Amino acid sequence: MHLLRLKTYSWIIIIGLALSGITAFPLLTELRLLVELDCWPPFVHDWLTSVYQAISTTNQAYPYLSYGTDWLAFAHLMLAILFIGTLKDPVKNKWIIQFGLICCVLIVPLALIAGSIRQVPFFWRLIDCSFGALAGIPLYLCHSAIGKLEKMNHP
C-alpha cells in the first residue's frame, strides 16, 4: 500500500516536471494563446500582453536569447528523469525527495528576490511561489511513505 502511494506521488512529480519542461519550449505560442483568452482580470491580461510583446520583439531581433529557456526546459526534463530513482529504490533514493523538498523551499526566496530585481509584478511572483508549495505536497507525501517503508523493512 505504501509502495503504491509512493509510486503514485513519484509519478505526479515526474509528470509535473516533464510537463513544465515541455511547455517551456513553445513560450511565445503559449503566451499568444493566453493573451487571446478573454478571461483575465485587466492587470493579468496587461502583464501577459507585455511579456508576449517582450518575448516576440526579442525573438525577432535576438532569437538566440530564447536558448536560455530551452536550457530551462532541458533542466526540468533532466530533473524528471532524476526522480525515476524514487520508483526504482525509494528507500535508497530518499535523498532525491529531500532534494526536491529543498528546491521547493528555495523557490520562494528566488521568486521574491529575483522577481523584484527583474521587475516581475508581485502577483506573478506569488504564482511562482505556489509552484514550490504545490510540488511540496506530493514530495512530502513521498517522504512520509518512504519513512513508513523504512519502518516496515527495519522494525
Biggest pleated sheet: none
**How far is the N terminus from the C terminus?**
17 Å
- Based on CA atoms alone, the radius of gyration comes out at 18 Å
- The secondary structure category is mainly alpha
Q: Tell the overall outline.
A: elongated
- Summarize the helix and strand pattern as letters: HHHHHHH
Could you walk me through the main structural features you see in this protein, from its secondary elements to its overall organization?
The model has no long low-confidence stretch (mean pLDDT 95). The protein has one domain. With 155 residues, the protein is mainly alpha-helical. Helix 1 runs antiparallel to helix 7 and helix 6 runs antiparallel to helix 7. The protein is built from 7 helices and no strands.
Summarize this entry quickly.
By secondary structure, this protein is mainly α. It has helices at residues 2-24, 27-36, 42-61, 67-82, 85-88, 94-117, 122-153.
What is the secondary structure topology, with strand pairs?
Blueprint: H1 2-24, H2 27-36, H3 42-61, H4 67-82, H5 85-88, H6 94-117, H7 122-153
Helix pairs in contact: 1-4, 1-7, 2-3, 6-7
Short descriptors:
155 residues, mainly alpha, elongated
